[in-house]
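Page 47, continued from p. 46.
Same chain as before, 341 aa.
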Amino acid sequence: MEQTNTMGPGMPAAEIEALSQQIYQESAFVEKLREESARVIVGQERMMERLLIGLLANGHILLEGLPGLAKTLAIKTLAQAVKASFQRIQFTPDLLPADIIGTMVYNPASSEFAVHKGPVFANFILADEINRAPAKVQSALLEAMQERQVTIGGETFKLKEPFLVLATQNPIEQEGTYPLPEAQTDRFMLKVKVGYPDRNEEREIMRRNLTDEDFGKVSPVVKPADILSARKAVRRVYMDEKIEQYILDIVFATRNPGNFSLSVLEPLINYGASPRASINLALAAKAMAFLRRRGFVIPEDVRNVCHDVLRHRIGLSYEAEAENISQEDVIDRILNTVEVP
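Result:
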């Protein structure tokens, strides 16, 4: 049976409509996940949405935010709602790769070495303050993220699916940290900046923490198998060729801004986004359409996730830093200039 190419130009309207109906039905569990998470997490809808995008698009997330903004609670809540295993690894300067992936342990009774698996063998991994551990430890985790497997004592083990790494880093402390190299941050699908809650949300947070009522109980509403099925559905979401061109225009504008009437950005950018940016921008846009229960991608889906996909993939020059220009400013200028289909 011949398969329909959902990436080709000009899919018939009737097929798009049929696909949209399928996606609408298959994405029904998203509302259950949102409702269950909202029982524990006050506000932070954007952060929770980004976690869901990473989960549905099979990509890892780097969260940057100040202490106390529910970063740890968010992934723990999501893991409980998905009925999946969760491990939190606190990164410290004395951490070793074996503390993450595992090692060979000698058993005196049998006079043999046995494999002792580390905490990375779980569905959801919270790498708390990833920039507090040295490069050797960071790279051990990043290898597991990329290959989805771990080798211990010459034996290779596949990691559980779904497998999602949420790494956090604190933007205010520089002493005693080992910043992730740019090539390693590129492995993360999204870099999400977490902000403070608004006044009403903070009042609700304060009230909840002053009461005896248990707000931390989360019921599993989705199985890991449902997530794996949803990932296949996300890839079936239709993306028109014009949207593909739009994504490429945005990414190429970070590399050759002069070609897009953005010569003003040339002295501000040292290097542009890698091909991973194009892949992840397309995947994240499809996941966003799925979360909106739509079977096709619109330009707004691309624009919605653009900052999170690109902010850690653009290298700024000294001139940009001297003028206090951030990656966000560069992305805003590109989005405001590149023609929207």
